[in-house]
Design goal:
Number of strands: 15
Protein name: Heat shock protein HSP33
CATH superfamily of the largest domain: Hsp33 domain
Helix content: 25-40%
Mean pLDDT: 88
Pfam families: HSP33 (PF01430)
Number of helices: 13
CATH architecture of the largest domain: 3-Layer(bab) Sandwich
Shape: globular
Radius of gyration: 22 Å
InterPro entries: Heat_shock_Hsp33, Heat_shock_Hsp33_C, Heat_shock_Hsp33_N, Hsp33_helix_hairpin_bin_dom_sf
GO molecular function, one term: unfolded protein binding
Low-confidence stretches: 1-16, 209-216
Largest sheet: 7 strands, antiparallel
CATH class of the largest domain: Alpha Beta
Structural class: alpha+beta
Keywords: Chaperone, Cytoplasm, Disulfide bond, Plasmid, Redox-active center, Stress response, Zinc
Length: 324
């Protein structure tokens, strides 16, 4: 991706800014700190509305997706980046993944009865209340002929963003600043509309032996960046009319902001009838028979997109190679 000065892009009429469903890389020039900003709109809403998630689960899954976008955009990979949480709380599992071309999908597994009992604690400390004790994992899968990278750390913190920062402190030893906001739009009649999310992540990468030793000026620049980052409001992150580059300029213009071309994001599930057929063929046919619904067909529903695939007996004969 080409690197552009903020002013260059602002003055170039040929550049039409993407305002939603994007990752925008940037650098704070005065301190050389690297960052990413994510804005999610229609793609996020499509993913969440395919499921009947209770509000706390939908909100937490939206935060998971936002963090997955921020984290994956810091890496160079050709494949799939996955962010997964697994715990013993009401939300047992959350998975969000993004391909290197920008296709995103996500789903959550939860216990509705346990979720109702934890309702009073969610506002105080959502991560412990919803996830309980467990771990958060980051996985990069670049195909069958490559070695998968995975980082795992225990869930620690009041919010999911706190858990991610704990991971970087414990496992990567990289200073990381994060702010994430998730909410539903409020319609004129007071009802809830589409889901939106936004987030900014700034990192101070370790210096190698050829670079100067970290000095007081670098520490001051880091603290200043964190103060400016903390001044960002949820309304700013979620405003569909406030472009990502405009918010970055509002925050960091005094120190200079250099931005790269944004990367577009979109909902994209990788399920297909062929993949489901391959999965069924790996199971004993007697076991597959138990998946039949009232009309006598086997039904398999994708956890990510809720698409239902149906197979009658003739379809199963073809799956198992017994068709006449």
């Amino acid at each position: 991706m080409a690197c552009r000065n903020f002013e260059d892009i602002m003055d170039d009429p040929s550049v039409q800014p993407i305002t939603d469903d994007l990752v925008l890389p940037f650098q704070i020039e005065a301190s050389r700190l690297r960052g990413r900003m994510v804005k999610l709109g229609p793609a996020l809403d499509e993913i969440l509305t395919r499921h009947a998630y209770p509000e706390p689960v939908a909100r937490f899954l939206a935060e998971t997706m936002t963090l997955a976008m921020l984290l994956s955009s810091m890496l160079k990979y050709d494949g799939i980046f996955t962010l997964q949480t697994k715990g013993d709380g009401p939300v047992r599992l959350m998975v969000a993944d993004i391909t290197s071309v920008g296709d995103i999908r996500a789903y959550a597994q939860f216990d509705e009865e346990a979720l109702a009992k934890a309702a009073d604690d969610v506002a105080i400390a959502p991560a412990p209340a919803l996830l309980g004790k467990g771990h958060i994992a980051f996985t990069v899968d670049q195909g069958p002929n490559t070695e998968r990278y995975q980082g795992i750390v225990e869930l620690y913190g009041k919010t999911l963003a706190d858990c991610v920062q704990h991971y970087f402190r414990q496992s990567e030893q990289i200073d990381t600043g994060l702010t994430v906001s998730v909410d539903q739009e409020t319609l004129p009649d007071g009802s809830k509309g589409a889901w939106r999310a936004g987030g900014i992540m700034i990192q101070r990468l370790p210096q190698d032996a050829t670079e100067k030793v970290l000095g007081s000026g670098d520490e001051d620049a880091w603290r200043r960046a964190m103060v400016l980052l903390s001044s960002t409001t949820g309304d700013e992150l979620l405003d569909p009319d406030l472009a990502a580059r405009d918010l970055l300029f509002r925050l960091f213009h005094e120190d200079g902001v250099r931005v790269w071309q944004p990367k577009a994001l979109r909902f994209g599930c990788r399920c297909s009838r062929e993949r489901v057929s391959d999965m069924l063929s790996s199971l004993p046919r007697d076991e597959v028979q138990s998946l039949k619904i009232d009309d006598g067909r086997v039904e398999v529903v994708c956890q990510f997109c809720s698409t239902a695939y149906h197979f009658d007996d003739a379809d199963l004969d073809r799956v198992y190679g017994t068709a006449k």
